[in-house]
Write a structure and sequence with these properties.
The protein contains 16 helices and 2 strands. It is mainly α.
Length: 423
């Protein structure tokens, strides 16, 4: 192909070939026909994370017979050849006379049909001859370890983490938007905040408060703490279970930062936050989680959101106070009366915002939760007379069965770690 002098002179402008760029139709990419989600923020979070789980768990969780593949980072990941999550391969166990794909590996499994090798000469005691014993030893196959770590493609792991973290942030945005509508204290704190003219002009009234969260990030320990203090107005010392899980949440935030900004590779700032001594040898190395790693992250984030959901709920309804008693510093011109029938229209708004129908088990009945709140006020009054500090202010709820909407999940570690997550 002949080139003109001008083309030759401009050859350095295209060190890589470029095709005509496509036009992105953003309107078509969002589904305006989907109705608004009226479920509680915690139920929205549970639904969203369950949807992420289905993306990879169906492929990688139940592996009856597996083969190893190697990704571009040189790490092996296991592919299930039976359910079609990877290319079909020969079954080495079946070739060597072992159980076929999916066959049980225990001692009760049916014996395979004998072949010619099984008819090898035996000595007087009935044992296999030496020559045949050597042949068997040479062809022995390593048994499949059922609990061996199951690796997945690193890119899928990164996408799953981003999805989980997006669900966490979406929970906080939905919660704040609704709290501004129902809680007088939160609404007063939001009044000085500004929104764009576009939000004021085009948002439906019930969604205007959503615009207040657009400049906020909840991907960090300090970000969440600031939200509790500045946007919800909870000034008390954080309970020990909240402080502990915030530190674990910060670790996931650092992983998220790596996935968003570095294609999964560990940066030096992330390593400093996570502990530079422990992570110095894996700087600039890729994030390659196993299936168990992803499930640990998912479990941690679900426990994190539920713990915060419980803590915020009880803090809000307690600070309103009971008529004739003191409040916990809330800006509210009304208090609970102690009569459920009279308080139900207000209490129900808080209950519906924090309660879960999708959790296992679901939240307690509204009357049980209200009764627990009244019991809290009664005991608090008794302790005030006796000069005893209330246990909920020391990091432990008075009665977890009645004041917490969602039962805390066990197994959460509260190990301290370096301060400061960053975007």
């Amino acid at each position: 192909m002949n080139t003109t002098p001008k083309q030759t002179a401009l050859a350095h402008h295209a060190i890589t070939s470029v095709q005509a760029f496509p036009r992105i139709d953003t309107v078509r990419m969002f589904n305006g026909a989907v109705p608004d989600d009226t479920s509680s923020p915690i139920d929205q979070f549970i639904t969203n994370t369950d949807a992420i789980n289905k993306i990879y768990l169906q492929q990688y969780q139940t592996l009856s017979t597996t083969t190893n593949s190697v990704d571009q980072n040189g790490r092996e990941f296991i592919v299930d050849t039976e359910v079609g999550t990877g290319p079909e391969v020969d079954d080495p166990a079946r070739d060597l006379g072992g159980p076929a794909k999916g066959a049980p590996l225990d001692s009760d499994a049916s014996e395979p049909e004998p072949d010619e090798a099984d008819c090898a000469p035996k000595d007087v005691e009935g044992e296999v001859g030496e020559h045949h014993a050597e042949a068997v030893e040479e062809t022995e196959v390593e048994p499949v370890i059922a609990d061996a770590p199951i690796s997945i493609p690193p890119e899928l792991g990164a996408l799953a983490v981003l999805g989980y973290m997006s669900a966490v942030e979406s929970y906080f945005r939905a919660l704040l938007r609704n709290l501004i509508e129902i809680d007088q204290h939160v609404r007063i704190l939001a009044e000085p905040m500004e929104i764009t003219f576009a939000a004021a002009r085009y948002h439906r009234r019930e969604l205007v408060a959503e615009a207040l969260t657009e400049g906020m990030s909840f991907a960090g320990e300090q970000n969440v703490t600031d939200m509790l203090r500045k946007r919800i107005g909870i000034k008390d010392q954080l309970p020990v279970e909240v402080e502990g899980i915030l530190k674990e949440f910060r670790k996931v935030c650092e992983i998220r930062h790596c996935c968003v900004h570095r294609f999964g590779r560990l940066g030096s700032k992330n390593a400093v936050s996570l502990g530079i001594v422990q992570h110095q040898d894996i700087l600039e190395k890729p994030f390659t989680p196993t299936l168990d790693d992803l499930q640990t992250i998912a479990d941690l984030l679900r426990t994190f959101v539920k713990t915060l959901n419980n803590y915020i709920f009880r803090s809000l309804i307690e600070r309103i106070g009971l008529e004739g008693g003191s409040t916990n510093g809330g800006f509210c011109d009304w208090q609970w009366t102690g009569d459920f029938q009279e308080d139900s229209h207000r209490f129900e708004r808080y209950y519906n915002l924090f309660a879960s129908k999708n959790d296992t088990p679901p939240s307690p009945d509204i009357t049980a939760v209200y009764t627990g709140l009244m019991s809290y006020f009664a005991l608090k009054a008794t302790q005030r007379k006796g000069g005893t500090r209330h246990p909920s202010r020391m990091g432990k709820p008075l009665d977890e069965s009645s004041t917490d909407l969602v039962t805390r999940e066990s197994g959460t570690t509260n190990q301290p770690s370096p301060e400061g997550a960053h975007e």
